[in-house]
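Entry 14. Structure prediction run on the chain below.
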Amino acid sequence: MIPVPGFQGRKVAVLGLARSGLAAARALAAGGAEVLAWDDGASARARAEAEGLTLHDLSRRGAFEGVARLVVSPGIPHLYPAPNPHIAAALAAGVPVDNDVGLFFRALGRPEWAAFDSPPRVVAVTGSNGKSTTAALIHHILCTAGRPAQLGGNIGRGVLDLEPPDDGGVIVLELSSYQTELARALTPDIAVFLNLTPDHLDRHGGMGGYFAAKRRLFAEGGPDRAVIGVDEAEGRFLAGQLAEAPEDDRVIRISAVAKLEGPGWAVFARRGFLAEWRKGRQVAAADLRALPGLAGAHNHQNACAAWAATRALGLAPRAIEAALASFAGLPHRSQLVAEKRGVAYVNDSKATNAESAAHALAAFPRVRWIAGGLGKEGGIAACLPHLGHVAKAYLIGHSAEAFALQLGGTPHALCGTMAVAVAQAAAEAEPGDVVLLAPAAASFDQYADFEARGEDFTALVAALPD
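Output returned:
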């Protein structure tokens, strides 16, 4: 745990008592704050009370009298599409609002760092797609190379549940736009921006607000190094804002589609080969084609980002390349779960928007595509250029019929449930096919979360005859 200083003897309200909220409450209490905990859910309140936290109903009149700060969990909206009533009441009372990420950066630096040979570093990763894989890959490379490292944020442990880093330690954080938009402190040493595609637009009031939430990671504190994906206009704009000149190597540009040359620092992948360029010449390269944990161009972008971040931390190319080869990938993210009768079964349940699903479709030549759930604005429009890879689509969930209308002449079946889709896809698949779960939709119509959806797919595949 990282205790939060600065609130000794003062009241701090914590709203939302799931993983990050409970960790924030513990860390504040450890730093001497008087924690007032609240969640609108009775079961969450019961868990907090069982931990010894003091419950404080934030809906009652005068609830924010004497409160120095309101700390909120990332899923709670504070502005769009409408402010949560408790947050609105805090702001009306003049109470500053923060989240656990802001507290983390506030609390991280400690006096004992002055005696360290190498001060701890923080690498923070954001973007629409690939954040989890990139953060986990950076952590894997560091650990494989013998560097002490921890992984947290939107993956693994909550940021305040991590241990204070030791001499030379690195903390790798995956940060969503929900986390970056509200944190009052954002001061990573290395910040990574992967890409930007439409997602969470209701929460951010449109694409401009969504980009602004991501951009705060680079604008609030100014990282020593910025790794920027430049395959979209927003990334190119951000890189241009941060660089003082074309040769400014504090900005490392990355791409999975274009060769990046020039006097600066760049890492790019083309046709499965990664190349690192500095000062107009190639300084390192790696073959990504045979890496099972990093299949597809979207994962090659993740590999470029991880390569750039770990090079900025001082690792040698050979050490990074060796670690890439041993990376197994993450559950629910282009995860190969089985091969049966010459057919591969891939779980990409994390593909909750069409852009992410499109990357998965592009990674395989012949796909039996399981898609559907709670579709988002635009449906599967981003997937349409890749329908040539789809032998047949098997549609499930709330948006099955809407997705079917967008498929045009692509063969498809309205299956309704995952069980029907897996059974039918397996029965019709031929050797060499990939049965791919890439839903292009949220999971909440049929499952608690994308993990539960992926686990259902994996269990159904395991039950198929060998």
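The mean pLDDT is 94.
Filed with the rest of this week's runs.
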